[in-house]
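Moderator note: this is an archived Q&A kept for reference. The question asked for a predicted structure of one protein chain; the sequence and the answer are reproduced below.
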Amino acid sequence: MAELPSSSIQSSVLAVLRAVKDAGLRSVARTALVKYVYLLDCLHAEEHRGATASGSRWYFDKFGPFATDLITGIDNMARVGMIQTRDGSGGDKEFTLYWLDEFPRGPALSEVGLSAGKAGRLEQWVRKFSGDLPKLLDFVYFHTEPMRDTTPGRTLSFDSLAVSGSTAAYVPVRVADHQRLLRLRQLSSEMGKAYRDAATASDKSPKIDVYDAVYTNALIAFDEEEKADDLAFHADLLP
């Protein structure tokens, strides 16, 4: 019979899968599940003097934070039916999906030590990164404190999170180049003007190709900003 992991790993995995289920998602891929447990540990460390929720032995792997004991624990939890799993393939890639059945439901994030604010942040990440594994990997690799100034193969420390609380500080990432920011706002204004001009010229709803060129330029400007994410700006599109 498979040996179950520590109670802390069990509760952390179940809490993340409950958050996935509560977000309306059917399942989560293996890699994403591991990264969400890592983010849970980061948030937990901010409020518990650097102590993680899962107690996993995290180290810097080629795709960021990784924990062999967590992987073994997930596999054994699946073997005994504590969590549900299915293997699949698409194209030339194979994957493993995990989800919670009706029982056990899993503990709430607050039951594994997160405050309401920290729990809400993890829930936000689960929704934000759903279906976008590259973006999730980018976030945990480049924008979490334990990964800062470390090297491949090294054990990750969560001690600095007890003081800095810096996981929360990385969302959203803002465009640092003010000239580019001004250009993006200009493009936004041009999109709104193109929309209004089209509406004036015709009683019909304007076609999107009226401002395709401006929109394309805006996308190019975003792509030129390395790791740009969640830039907030407004365009008043009035008929």
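Archived answer notes: The chain has two domains: 7-170, 178-224.
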